[in-house]
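Lab notebook: predicted structure, single chain.

Context: the supervisor wants predicted structures on file for every construct in the current expression panel, including those that have not yet been purified. This is the next one on the list. No modifications to the sequence; it matches the entry in the shared construct table.
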Amino acid sequence: MSSSATSVLVGHIAGQTRRIRVGSGGVMLPNHPPLVVAEQFGTLESLYPGRIDLGLGRAPGTDPITARALRREGLGAEQFPEDVARLQALLGPLQPGQPVKAIPGAGTNVPIWLLGSSLFSAQLAAMRGLPYAFAGHFAPRLYREALRVYRSGFQPSATLKQPHAMLALPAIPGEDMDEARFLATTSYQRILALFRGQPLWMKPPVASMDGLWSAGEQASVRDFLSLQVMGNADDIGQQLNELLADIQVDELMFTVDIHDPEKRRQALDILAATRHHSTDSMASIN
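Prediction complete. Output recorded below exactly as produced.
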C-alpha cells in the first residue's frame, strides 16, 4: 500500500520483522514540526532499539492548500538546516535546563540521514557530519557531483567520523533481459504519467510502448531512468560494477517498479543474488 503516514508504516514493518533496519525515505521536514518527528521516531526507537533510521528531505512535496491543511504555511524549505539542527538536539542527550523535550526521543540518538537530489543537501550533510543518500532513481544527472561534494566537504561529527553515502537506483530484475525489458514498461508508463501530470498508478507491463509515447517523451523517460539497471543477477552485477567503478558509495538502495507482487518478490531475490555476481568493491545492497 501507499501512505503518507511514514512513521506508521515504519512501525508496522518493524513490528512484523525481527532483524532488518527500517527507515523513512523520507520525512519531508518542512511539513512536520521537528518536535513531532522526534517524538514519533523516538517512540519507534524505544519500541525497536537499534533498528530505526530517520531519512529527512527538504522538499515540501505539496501545494499551498495542503501546506495550510498541515498548518505549516509560511514555514518553507529555507528553514530546513535549522529544523535539522533542532531535530538533532531533540534526539540527542538531554541538556540541563532544556526547555523543550521529546518524550520519548531525548537521548535515543536515532540515526539521521539527509536525502537529496541536488547539491544543497549534499553540502548540508557534509557540514553536519551526517550520512547522505542521493536520489538517483529520479535525479540521475547530479549523482557524481553530489557525492563528490559530500565526500570532499565532510566534517566529522559525534554522529559520524567518516562520510557514509548511499545511492538510490531504479532496478528491473528478471529471469533474463527479455523479461526485464517487458517488466520495465511499467516504470516507463509511470514516469510518462508523471510528465503528463497524470496519476502515478502502477500499470501492468505491455508488449510494446509503441503508440503510448512520442519520440520526445521516450527520450525524456529514458533520461529520467538513465541509472536504471536491469536483467538477471549477472547482468545487474556487471552494470553495477561499471557504475561504481568511478564513484564511491557505501550502500545501494533500489526502487523496483514491477506491477505483479510475485514478480516483485522474485526481483528482490535477484537483487540479493547480485552480491555473488559482483566484485569486492560492490557497495552494501539494500
